[in-house]
Amino acid sequence: MTDRIAALSATLAAFAHERDWEQFHTPKNLAMALSVEASEIVEIFQWLTEAQSKRLPPEKVQHLREELADTFVSLLKLADHYKVDLIEAAHQKLEKNAKKYPVEKAKGSAKKYNEL
Amino acid sequence: MTDRIAALSATLAAFAHERDWEQFHTPKNLAMALSVEASEIVEIFQWLTEAQSKRLPPEKVQHLREELADTFVSLLKLADHYKVDLIEAAHQKLEKNAKKYPVEKAKGSAKKYNEL
Amino acid sequence: MTDRIAALSATLAAFAHERDWEQFHTPKNLAMALSVEASEIVEIFQWLTEAQSKRLPPEKVQHLREELADTFVSLLKLADHYKVDLIEAAHQKLEKNAKKYPVEKAKGSAKKYNEL
Amino acid sequence: MTDRIAALSATLAAFAHERDWEQFHTPKNLAMALSVEASEIVEIFQWLTEAQSKRLPPEKVQHLREELADTFVSLLKLADHYKVDLIEAAHQKLEKNAKKYPVEKAKGSAKKYNEL
After folding, report:
1. Could you list the mean pLDDT of each consecutive 10-residue stretch along chain A, which spans 116 residues?
2. Does the beta carbon of C115 lie under 8 angstroms from any beta carbon of chain A?
3. C61-94: pLDDT as tens digits
4. Which of B37, A31, B115, C71 is nearest to D46 (CA)?
5. pTM higher than 0.90 for the full model?
6. Are residues A114 and A78 in the same domain?
7. Among B60, B109, D23, D30, which residue has the fewest nearby CB atoms (within 10 Å)?
8. Tell me: the pLDDT tens digits for D69-90?
9. Are residues D18 and D67 in the same domain?
10. Residues of B in contact with C19 (CB under 8 A)
11. Taking CB atoms and an 8 Å limit, are C47 and B29 in contact across chains?
12. Inter-residue contact B33 to B67 (CB < 8 Å)
């Protein structure tokens, strides 16, 4: 059974290799691309109310879907350079966050852990 | 067999629910959080040369790993709100990009498709 | 009479020169720093409602003031590299925007010019 | 003698008022817009080497000039909401940075103050 993320990583690597793009895909540049893609997501929501942001019309959802994809691709390529497994890293970060934000202190609060 | 991403999504949803945080996790706010997390990755690389960015010392890799995790978590939560499968969306975006960046035109070039 | 922005630019240049930091302050790196600083402003507001964002408590205003300063410094240094006068450039951009967003079409609407 | 920044601020306020846009220009939304505009600057440089970033061709400089203007406008509007004088705030931040980065320790180093 092949992991779906590993399969995507392999496809991405082949895509860049065919185009001789590895030279541009340094971690520094991928970090820049990641933040640019993330901002294209922010752009969709910047003038909407929080309520409006929850129910985008279908054509905006399609646009969001493409920007989510672009962001994920940059993130995954950067993670792959450093052999970081995003899923495993997320679970471990979550365990750490569980300690920083214990339920009894963090419940219903948007404060940062050092302000709780 | 459970998909690893679906399992992480479920864990994230439970984490937020326990803390009564769903009220804060609107798509508008998640987009903001995503861009903030992406910038914490940019911060790691901002004064490094491209060559240095390829070989971070171990303690910086560990820091990067945590920021990659945070970014992925925000991205996944936003994708989940709109029921977007990130892997599928990435493959579809890649097919679109293959048309925008045909190998014969894009090879070795960092130009945007509309400048090729 | 010395222009206040020109005076700040001169102070910033001297600050970097004394520390032999010009080598790091390439436009690419300054663009990264600018986006990192801008995100530190976003971080202040990310979990607040729009109403809350209008009336931050005094200690948060002080924090915002410092992040606004950092962002302005990166912006000004980048503008200086390309001898761009930010005030003049802003007035010219505004004239362009006045054509893209004529009052009768744009009034009360948050739509982008190409959707009006 | 009118301050050039104050004059720009007044023009910006009138521009928004005519279009009934104050409702959208909450600090939260302006922070989002600021980061989106900053990322449009990052986009210009993302695949360039540091050396290339220092000498953009004229048409790219013109594009950069417009993005610098947009970024400055968002920054100034946010500063105005909280009555922050950007120039004064920058000078004060610089004094603080002079203490965090004394010449003898910071000279020639890109390290953060807490790593010096």
Report:
1. 88 97 98 98 98 98 98 98 98 97 95 91
2. no
3. 999 999 999 999 999 999 999 999 999 999 999 9
4. A31
5. yes
6. no
7. D23
8. 999 999 999 999 999 999 999 9
9. yes
10. none
11. yes
12. no
Q: Are residues B75 and B106 in the same domain?
A: no
| Interchain contact, D98 vs C61, CB within 8 Å | no
**Least Cα separation, residue A86 to chain B (angstroms):** 6
The Cβ-side half-sphere exposure at D67, using a 13 Å CA radius, reads 23
Q: Which of A32, A43, A47 sits opposite D42 (nearest CB)?
A: A32
Pair of tokens at residue C112: 């982008």
Q: For the domain that residue A49 is a member of, what is the CATH number?
A: 1.10.287.1080
- From chain B, the residues in CB contact with D49 under 8 A are 50
Q: How far apart are CA B76 and CA B85, in angstroms?
A: 9
Q: Do B45 and A31 touch (CB under 8 A)?
A: yes
Structural domain count of chain A: 2
In the structure encoding, which two tokens stand for residue B64, read together?
A: 């990067």
State whether D42 and D14 are in the same domain. yes
Tell me whether C26 touches chain D (CB under 8 Å). Answer: yes
What's the CA gap between A78 and D84, in Å, rounded?
Answer: 38
Establish if A110 touches chain B: CB-CB under 8 angstroms.
Answer: yes
User: Any idea which residue has 């001297």 for tokens?
Assistant: C14
Nearest by CB to residue C65, choosing from D11, D84, D97, is: D84
Which of C32, C48, C50 is nearest residue A32 as measured by Cβ atoms?
Answer: C32
CA distance C110 to chain A (A): 6
**Number of CB atoms found within 10 A of residue D60's CB:** 15
Q: Which chains would you list as touching B if contact means 3+ CB atom pairs under 8 Å?
A: A, C, D
User: pLDDT tens for residues A93-103?
Assistant: 999 999 999 99
Domain that holds residue C24: 4-84
Q: Which residue of D has its CA nearest to A40?
A: D36
DSSP 3-state of D78: helix
Reported ipTM: the value is: 0.96
Count of alpha carbons within 13 angstroms of residue B73, beta-carbon side: 25
Confidence of residue C2 (pLDDT cuts 50, 70, 90): low
Q: Do D22 and D76 have their domain in common?
A: yes
Contact C43 B24 (CB under 8 A): no
